[in-house]
Amino acid sequence: xxxxxxxxxxxxxxxxxxxxxxxxxxxxxxxxxxxxxxxxxxxxxxxxxxxxxxxxxxxxxxxxxxxxxxxxxxxxxxxxxxxxxxxxxxxxxxxxxxxxxxxxxxxxxxxxxxxxxxxxxxxxxxxxxxxxxxxxx
Length: 137
Fold this sequence. Notes:
By secondary structure, this protein is α/β, with parallel strands linked by helices. The chain has helices at about 1-25, 115-120; strands at about 45-50, 70-75, 85-90, 95-100, 110-115, 130-135.
């Protein structure tokens, strides 16, 4: 009986040590980081917004966890992993993001940016801006 308890306590101790590693690995993704060659150069004009704070760490449609500090975006049709250059038409600032989610689902908007990506090209207080998006390598 005593030996069984010792073995179980050692095994459970190792499992507990592995839990953080398993959690991190479960959030890994296999999304390609390249744009499809036939899509390179595709352009679209419209409005961009950014994700609300409540979406932080929630799973995106691609399976990745949303991170407001990464340069990612949601688009209705572009494949996951597609890299897109988003240009603010008011000040010509641009940022490159990776598509990892679906949306936006508000009429007139063509892309939802992470908070960091939006902040790189516009003041967060703007909320919604006019943009040009272009698929890049």
